[in-house]
Sequence to fold (370 residues):
Amino acid sequence: MRKLKAFLQRKNIIFSGKRYGIDALAAMAQGLFCTLLVGTILNTIGQQFNIEFLNRTLITLKSADGANEIHYNLGGIASAMVGPGIAVAIGFALACPPLVLFSLIPVGFAANAMGGAGGPLAVYFVAIVASECGKLVSKETKVDILVTPIVTILVGIGISTLVAAPIGTAAKAVGSAVMWATELQPFFMGILVSVIIGIALTLPISSAAICAAFSLTGLAGGAAVAGCCAHMIGFAVMSFRENRWGGLVAQGIGTSMLQMPNLVKNPRCWIPPVLASAITGPIATCLFRFQMNGAPVSSGMGTCGLVGQIGVYTGWINDIAAGTKPAITTMDWVAMALICFILPAVLSLVFCEILRKWGWIKKDDLKLPL
Fold:
C-alpha cells in the first residue's frame, strides 16, 4: 500500500474533491467558454452586424454517403471543438504530461459526440479517467511516444462507448426535469434555481459548467441568469464603498468569486445577494417569463463579460428565426435591465445597509485585495 501511494504521488494523481470537483469543473467551464461560448458570440456578432467574414462558410463536410453536407463558419468551427476543448482544459488542470494532454483531443471529441445533449458532462467524467490512466503509464517505458497516447486514447474512447451515452441521457433527463418543474411551478423553482446557481457562481466551482452539463435553458435558464446576476452585481454594488470602481468592474463583469475569502471570514456577507436572487428569480419566471434560449453555458455566466445577456439576446434571435417569437419588444429589454442589473443592485444594497446597521457586516468585511 505504501508503494502504491508513493507511485501515485510520483505520478501526481491525487484523489480529492478539490481536484475533481473544483479544479476540473472550473477547467471544464474554461473549455466551454473558449469553444462553444466564443463560437456562439462570434455567430451572433456576424449575424447582427452582417460581417461577411464571420458568416462565410469556411469548411464543408459531407456525410459518408455524400447525401448530406454540414457547413461551418468561423463560429461554427469554434463551437464544434467543445469536446476537445473541455478535455484538454481538464487535462491541463490535472497537470497531465504533454503526450497525455494532446491525446485528450480525440477523447474529448468522442465523448462529446457520444454523449449527445449531455456531451459536456460525459467529457468531464471521461477526461478525468483518461487523464489519470494516461499519467499512470507516462514515461514508464522506453517507447513512451507510442504507449502513452495509445493508452490514453484507448481508455478514453473505450470508456466513452460504455458511459458517454448513459451519462448524456441522464444529464438531459435531469435538465429536462428542472426545466419542466420550472414551467410547472415557476415561483418556487424560480427561487430554487436562482439561489442555487447564484451560490454556485460565487463558490470555487463552475455554475457555467453545471448549466451546460444539464442543458439548462428556457425559464430555468432565465432564473439561473437572474441568480448569477444577483450575486455579481450585488457584491459589486454593496462593496463599492470598500472597493470603489476597480471592485465594481472586477466583480460586476468579472466574478463574484473574488469575495470567497471574505465570505469564509464572515458568511453573513452572503445574505444580501442570496436574498436578492430569491426575489429576482421568481420575478424573472413569473412576471416577465424571462427565458435564456442561447447556449446553456450562458445561463451560468451572469454578467461575466456580459455573456449571460448575450446568451439571452442570442436566444431571442434563435426564437425569432424558429418562428416561436414574433420580435424583440421593449418589455424584453426592460426585463433584462431589471433582472440583470437594476434589481440586483438595489436589493443587495438595501439588504446590505440593513445588515451593516445591525452590525452583521462591518467595515472592510467586503474589502478585496485589489
In short: Residues 185-358 form one domain. Residues 144-184 form the longest helix (41 residues). Strands lie at 59-62, 69-72. Residues 121 and 159 are 14 Å apart (CA to CA).
